From TrEMBL:
Protein name per UniProt: Large ribosomal subunit protein uL22
Entry keyword set: Ribonucleoprotein, Ribosomal protein, RNA-binding, rRNA-binding
Coiled coil ranges: none
PANTHER family given in the database record: CHLOROPLAST 50S RIBOSOMAL PROTEIN L22-RELATED, LARGE RIBOSOMAL SUBUNIT PROTEIN UL22M
Annotated Gene Ontology cellular component terms: cytosolic large ribosomal subunit
Family: Belongs to the universal ribosomal protein uL22 family.
Gene: rplV
Length: 129
């Protein structure tokens, strides 16, 4: 018997990839996610390839995973994919201690974050001449 299969959360023309507990602050990761949001997949990959941000390589791997999911699991056309959503969530924060002078101490926060990338297949409009 068993439970019924859960309905799909995304539309039929969408695929996603999620990367959890990335060792970077959500604020810094969101700068890179905003850079690719709404772009075509090929353009987004090129931007990430030549970005100077440290986390750009990790975001690129996640985007490639979303593209592979779209191609292999959902039979979507890679050439017509667009980054529909790229959002960042907070994860855990490691609290560390840094010894200071006169017996004091400062707190060091080491935040982690989550990244979700959703790609969507769009039909290209043919311009009338």
């Amino acid at each position: 018997m068993g439970k019924a299969k859960a309905p799909r959360r995304l539309a039929d023309n969408e695929a996603r990839a999620v990367l959890r507990t990335i060792r970077v602050s959500p604020q810094k990761l969101n700068l890179v996610a905003a850079m690719i949001r709404g772009k075509k997949v090929a353009s987004a990959l090129a931007d990430l390839e030549f970005s100077r941000k440290r986390i750009a390589g990790t975001v690129k791997k996640t985007l490639e995973s979303a593209i592979a999911n779209a191609e292999n699991n959902h039979d979507l056309d890679v050439d017509s994919l667009v980054v529909a959503e790229a959002f960042v969530g907070k994860s855990m924060v490691l609290k560390r201690f840094h010894a200071r002078g006169r017996g004091r101490g400062n707190r060091i926060l080491k935040p982690y974050s989550h990244l979700t990338i959703v790609v969507r297949e769009v039909e290209e409009q043919v311009e009338a001449a």
